[in-house]
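Lab notebook: predicted structure, single chain.

Context: the supervisor wants predicted structures on file for every construct in the current expression panel, including those that have not yet been purified. This is the next one on the list. No modifications to the sequence; it matches the entry in the shared construct table.
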Amino acid sequence: MKKIIFAFVIFSVFISCTSLPDRSDYNIPDRESLNFEGLQFGLCHAGYSRSDEEYALLDALGAKWIRIDFRWSSVEKVRGEWDFSVYDDFLDSTDAKGKKVLAILDYDTPWLHEGKDTSRQISPEELPLFLEYVKVIAERYGDRVGAFEIWNEPNTKRFWTGSDEQFFELTRQSLDVLKMISPETPVAVGSLFYNPIVGARGYLKKMIKSGVLDKADALSLHPYVLSPSVMESRIHDARELIADAGYATPIWITEAGFPTGGSYPNKVKLEKQGIEFAEALIGLSASGVELITWYELFDSKNPLEVEKDASSETFFGMVWPDYTWKPGAYSYSVIANELSDAEFTPDVFDFDGNNLSSLYQAHFLLKDGTRKIILYSKRKMAEVDLSLLGEYVEILDILTGEKQPHNSDILKTVGKDPIMIIVK
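Prediction complete. Output recorded below exactly as produced.
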């Protein structure tokens, strides 16, 4: 395990030193086939309480989607006996609050492997039973959920212990069932832990070659990395693999995050969480993805309840259980609220000014013509002349949400803290 963590750290440090992105060759698929109206944001593991307070929190954060497991073991605990009460109630609440649900079809059920040590896999003999579960869920919820996702992180032994070929076959046949019963509901495949530490690039190449993208509406990835600056280039690389195989499949980010404690190598200090979230979300948004469901809403414990040796899984939340916001929540809320429904455009302005070699730019466009430009400069301060943007702009501090008007003929000094320039 230590060797794996060491390799993760060394590779991440190496790749995080790459230059600013050249987006001139980004081949971003058209969204019309899925009826997506622009970039969408959501959160994993949210809405469980079904309380007004939790949904008000989601509204404040700008989260329109909730990603949640529709576990086989939750609906068919005993073979042939179906219980839909949990998900009926959950979808009643999300419908009432206007949230879209990304339903993960995943895992096995205890009676399937009774007397066997073969959990977290579906053998060829067991596949018809899994497909029956997929069929039942699609028939009951296909017109109520926003989208389906098949399994979770099958390229790790934690979540899939069968062969790669068995998983690809499960994916193909599940797609057939879903498209037959609920053809208008988008389906994402993959759900890959997308990091070199687990050979994710090679796995994705095998997955593409298997043909699972033929009927898929999206490829879902989990780009957990040490440095947020890596995320954009990693998604661009995945898109190149897809394009090289002749596909134009959109990419969804259905998990990404940074814990503020524990032993995971990508943990960040609590006071740095805001800027780490900001850079990661900006990079993912600028990579041309359609959907980002961040991992996750809540920490599992309040600060005073956390033991020093607690697992990093305790710390991935952007909000503590008592509803106090952590620094990352502020960055997420600004980006999700401001960029929701926006389209990324790979334009880069030739701002007049000095020291612009380190200036990071990401440009977004709303349907009403409003432009939103994100800028930051990690290596040195940069003076930016905003006169190209019109007579009057607003400048938004992404880490705090503070907004202030700004005359466009005044130079703006840009540093490491990202800002958003709003041009109407």
